[in-house]
Write a structure and sequence with these properties.
144 residues, alpha+beta, Jelly Rolls, 4-stranded antiparallel sheet
Amino acid sequence: MPMRKKDQYLDHLAKVPLFSACSKKELQTIARAADDVEVPAGKVLVEEGKPGHEFFLIINGTASVKRGKKEIVKLGPGQYFGELALLDRGPRSASVVAKDDMELLVLGQREFAGVIDEVPTLAHKLLTSMAQRLREADAKAYSH
């Protein structure tokens, strides 16, 4: 895919908490490593309980996030799922199904590891971002 098209995704990537501390150049490196994928309505993108190894950023279309048979949320353009799969291969916490035809930016764990090798400072930024998210989650858990 032409880099010009992938540059359109930089704003979307910058809004992902895991990538929020990244420079434009680092975001371009991430976008270059990702694939632009089109999927039809009804396609199961991830399955609850199965190991994950991809991150998905929704460019166009909507997806349904389900636990069991119950829909828990709908996701649309600019939203994402599967970011923790970049860091480990833990089981998916929910299933995600395309509600209509979708365009996604997909980054696999192997490609992400290549990005970290190419831009070593990115690893530190990601750890900082994860630590901040963990603190926020802890604060939320202890405030209830």
